[in-house]
Write a structure and sequence with these properties.
CATH class: Mainly Alpha
Number of strands: 2
CATH topology: Growth Hormone, Chain: A
Structural class: mainly alpha
Strand content: under 5%
Largest sheet: 2 strands, antiparallel
Distance between the termini: 7 Å
Number of helices: 18
Number of domains: 1
Helix content: over 70%
CATH superfamily: MFS general substrate transporter like domains
């Protein structure tokens, strides 16, 4: 047996527009603002720091992305364990505090090394909010409504990328970091009215071990579920971390007839993500199946990656940004993926999984980037992206197809 039912009485549930859902959604909004901001201001900030050669802008940009994503890998484990040991709320607000302070400091950097270490610290902070928020929402909403709750969190949250673009363009990169840090600190004032998950409080009263990250590796079936959860999210970060972040390079390689900026590519991709997250969450409720909704979106994503790489040669910037927008819709299964991860595990490991899974998926950029660079020599810019995209999508489709369906699953149990 890997899971046992809780003998304790049922806990209270809450409504779709409760303080818990609102705070989780706004927290994810600021999280995405800060997470994506570097992709938007990458070129501008590096040039201001004295990096002017095109190849160096690309290489130093990838280095900083790797530092940020490396921080998220570390933070994912840290916050996940704390979420199951100390509670969902402590992680939700603790992570917001750290990434807010780090982003305020980012506005003062003078060297690449300062920039890199602060992106690492910011990455650690950014790792905690989404998993804690999704876990809290999933455990407090009725099981027939929790898909709608996580959809609200995602739909509101990903729109933070659009604010990041507007602020970055209007105020400059340093002020954009100041705004992000200030938004996060302001969000901490909303602690009032948010209560801890009742399922977590029940688990605290039991003698079951909580937040043991290594327990995910001591049972073969549990490990298989965990690895599959991680793999589902990789295609989204292939799209965002490579196709969208390196949009200027792809624009040049595809012979786009006008200039392409990473800021606008991120803006249109995340604008699409708003619609995609809404659609994927709703579709999973209508189909009464998380897995079928994910499968449909992965197929859609594969088709759009093909369009981006092979159907835009010589196209206009408008056509390119349109493809970024639709590509964003196709990867709008992010919150659905995190919801599935949360639903696959018991209360004593749920925050650990829901926090580490998205961050390991985000952190896959650390592996994808060197693979992309290694393949770029023999396969070229487009060929290397096509190979990585195909492999990541096929593996994700297999992972979804072999996971147990979790729609409507009772989450009142623990792993043993």
């Amino acid at each position: 047996m890997t899971a046992t039912s809780s003998p304790l009485p049922p806990t209270r549930s809450t409504g779709l527009l409760s303080a818990i859902v609102v705070v989780a959604a706004l927290g994810y909004f600021v999280d995405i603002y800060d997470l994506i901001l570097f992709s938007i201001v990458r070129v501008q900030s590096l040039k201001d720091l004295g990096i002017t050669a095109a190849d160096e802008v690309t290489n130093q940009g990838l280095y900083l992305i790797n530092m940020q994503m490396g921080g998220m890998l570390l933070g994912g484990i840290l916050w996940g364990i704390l979420g199951d040991k100390r509670g969902r709320l402590s992680v939700l607000f603790g992570s917001i505090l750290i990434y807010s302070l780090a982003n305020l400091a980012n506005g003062f950097v003078q060297t690449i090394e300062q920039y890199a270490w602060l992106r690492l610290i910011a990455g650690i902070g950014l790792a905690g909010e989404l998993g804690a928020g999704i876990t809290l929402v999933s455990e407090t909403l009725p099981k027939e409504k929790r898909g709608y709750g996580t959809m609200i969190v995602a739909t509101v949250g990903v729109s933070g990328a659009m604010l990041a673009y507007w602020v970055g363009e209007a105020l400059g990169w340093r002020n954009a970091y100041f705004v992000g840090g200030g938004l996060g600190l302001a969000l901490l004032a909303l602690r009032v009215g948010v209560y801890e998950s009742g399922l977590f409080e029940q688990a605290k009263k039991s003698e079951v071990e909580r937040g043991n990250f290594l327990a995910l590796f001591t049972n073969r079936a549990r490990l298989a579920r965990y690895v599959k959860c991680l793999l589902i999210g990789v295609p989204l970060w292939f799209v965002v971390g490579i196709l969208i972040t390196l949009a200027p390079e792809f624009g040049a390689g595809l012979g786009i007839t006008g200039p392409v900026t990473a800021g606008l590519a991120v803006f249109w991709c995340y604008f699409g993500l708003v619609f995609g997250d809404f659609a994927s969450g709703t579709l999973s409720q209508v189909l009464r199946s998380r897995n079928r909704a994910l499968q449909l979106f992965l197929v859609f994503c594969g088709a759009l990656v093909g369009v981006y790489l092979f159907a835009l040669r010589g196209a206009s910037p408008t056509a390119f940004y349109t493809a970024c927008f639709v590509l964003g819709i196709s990867v709008g299964f992010w919150a659905l993926f995190v919801t599935v991860a949360a639903e696959q595990f018991g209360t004593n490991l749920r925050a650990t999984v829901a926090t580490t899974a998205p961050n390991f998926a985000r952190g896959s950029v650390v592996v994808l980037v060197p693979l992309f660079q290694a393949l770029r020599g023999p396969a070229g810019l487009v060929g290397s992206a096509a190979i990585l995209g195909l492999v990541s999508l096929l593996i994700a489709f297999w992972a979804v197809s072999t996971l147990p369906e979790s729609f409507g699953k009772d989450l009142d149990y623990v792993e043993s």
